[in-house]
## 1
Amino acid sequence: MSGGDIKLVASDDGLNAAGGTDASGTTGGRDGMFEEGRPSSSNGSITISGGTISVIANGDGLDANGTLEIKGGYAIVCGPTQGDTATLDYDSAGTISGGTFIGTGASGMVQSFSSSDQGVIMLRVDKQPAGTTIKLSDSEGNILLTHTPDLEYEVVILSSPDLSSGQSYTVTAGSLSQEVTAD
């Protein structure tokens, strides 16, 4: 994806580079991972380099089954709410080198980015109800990101060119307020 304004609401995976239907968001079949008792593999990839994408998913939010790369744009992933699915799901690598990413979801199978050229924050926030606003502030109290997810969530993943690895930030989700250091 290199541009445009995309809004997806999915009963299973939001974006799935492997194709097909795996029902991971509804029946616990973790992304078709086991077929006749054997693990499956994929070299599918998702690359986001521009535009705005908003995903609300009951299954995996972004499911690359290979590599996931965010190089630009603005991506918001809301969901999943069950433990056998994840906001980000990749097998090989999940990288972010530009753009803004705001992700929320369940904590059971959580993955963050495996490498980044900008700061990344992943934080478990207990179970927060749908509509609980997330705010990210710098050390001087300036709000850098804010988002109000449409689904309940237990994990927040944030990345932006405004975040620097090793710097401290404050994440607020409902009554929870915690200082964290960006990776």
## 2
Amino acid sequence: MDQRKTGNFLKDLRKKKGLTQEQLAEKFNVSSRTVSRWETGNNMPDLSILIEIADFYDVDIREIIDGERKSENMDNETKNTLKKVAEYSDAEKKILKKRLISMTLGTMILLLFALALEATSGFGFIPEKPCQNMSDFATGLAFGGLLMNMLYLNGSLEKIRAWKLDKLKASK
């Protein structure tokens, strides 16, 4: 796929409709900078937006990806499949977002707990040494949670899991 060719095709389609980048950006709820990146070939639209763009310009997704008009029309089955893939991708993003929010909230609660223990250690509610130990433990858990969050975000956990599965298969 030639992203520059695709970008030029998107630009031509927009100009044929008589729209500015800002107007198109407003239509698809993205920034005008994002539209500019599509049209220069620096970035490509997400699959869900790509389907909307194809409908908006009344072209096939294959035409957008190839960067040129084709004489054949995309059959409905292919279009429906792509819509399902886009919906699946959106659902996965929502699940990821929920997980990240949960992990972040858990980490924040642990940090608040550690701070509360630190603050109460001088008042004698809990003996100072156990209070310090609990605070250190909660802080360690919180930083462990932050580390797990980072590994999860950059995909390292998935790579570690795949590596472990490969090692298990190799040992059998």
## 3
Amino acid sequence: MLIRLQTILQRTLVRYFPEYRVFIKSDKNFRYFRLKSRVQVIFALIFAATIGWAGIATAILLINSFGIPSSSHKMQTDYALYQKHLKILAEELDVKTHETIQSHNRFDMALNQIAEIQSQLIFKEKQRQELETNLKAIQSSLRETTIERNKARELIATLVNENPNGLEIFDHNAIEDVVSDFMVEALAETAAERDHVKTTAQKRTTELEAEIEFIENRNNEIFRKLEEAIEVSILPLHKMFNNAGLPTDEIIESVRRGYSGQGGPDLTSSVSEKNEQSAIDVVRANHLLERLDLINLYMITANKTPFSFPIDGVYRFTSGFGYRPDPISKVRKMHNGVDFAAAHGTDIVATADGYVKFSGWRTGYGKLVILSHSFGFETWYAHNSKNFVKKGQKVSRGDHIADMGNTGRSTGVHLHYEIRQSGKPINPMIYLKAGNDVF
């Protein structure tokens, strides 16, 4: 079989590539060389390879000369847009921070005003009670004077009855006139003093009522502003949890049970039944305290949930969650997280409170940190250049846990960030976008 194939090949070469003679002139003589078919084929292959290589090299040079400037220009444009977007985000963050600080300052001032108003109300209530006490004392003194007057009249009548000839000893009419004059003067003085005290009390009561009405109106305005400020503060927190698709009521109740310690001395106090406005203010104040407690529960829950961003520095989003062509094998595969590229050594921070479940090397992930959080959440930080935490260590949101690197199965410096709940990967961008307005 081999001999037959060789024969066919030789016949083909002889047919299509006949032998050529190459003539070379030297002085007056001619010399020639005979080129066999096999040699001709070899020279033809070498010539074709040279021509093909030259064509490919020329094409590559032309592609590079036309493609690089446009790609560079596009990169510069994208970088400029990125810097502009970063500047806008920074300005928005500064405005939000300034508004938050102002809201806290206004809230503190309002609380101080409420405390001052409550002190003034207590002082006015004490003054009113003192005026009522003085009025009761005057009325009691008037009753005692009237009783003494009646007793004096009874004594005079008794003396007259016991001494029918008392006219020789006493001048009954003169004595009665003296006693009457004394009683009239005493009653006139008591009545004048009573009228003066009553007038003063009424005037002071009117002034106190006007002051109390003013304080109550100002108190209502402060309560209204506080209620509006608290509702405005609760709204973005509630919206953040709803956008993330979390069972807000169940999570808040779980946190409430975990932070339910109570105690203290028994200092029983009651609101006066006569002061209905004070009772209403107490109800409104208690409602405000309940709403403030809800804000605290929201903030505690937010700190335990991965809503904040995992990078402290300038970055670029390079890959999203879901199916994509693998950057190395080019095969379409599931990507369980998101990728952010930045400079080597950029700080990687914890996105929620928790503890370190794993810190070390894992195949494909390189240097990896896994944090465990409340409500079944886990966050994964992969391809790090250096880890700064150890297994079992407690961390808080914003703590520096690693530096960005290029370890493991990676094509460049970046962070691979995952969020898992009950072991199932979920799209981190849902939580990062939901927490954008709050954090």
## 4
Amino acid sequence: MNINPDIDKPIFIQIAEQLEDSIFTKVFPEETKIPSTNEISVLLNINPHTVLKGMNMLVDEEIIYKKRGLGMFVKEGAVKKIRKKRQSQFYDQYVAALIDEASKLQMSKEEVISLIERGFEHECNPN
């Protein structure tokens, strides 16, 4: 985990996002234990309460849960929930902006689709 205290994003949000990403990429599979608040706070040299605040965000989103006396665990279905959340964010951050810019450029739906297809072709055949 890498925390950057010099950016505007609060540290607890950075922690939540990095834990979420580790769950999404199956570094921490569903129904497995994640590192404790103390382990993460020592690793990153930050206050355990800051780590807990980030973890509580994931608890509120039902991505992780606490087993009393055992620690925090990844909830079953967490990856699906994260994927759905990220797809929604993808639309909000990229697709809506793309459509808005295409509209300003007076591009048709077909022209936009053609550009996207060209991008996929380039990605699949980079040479």
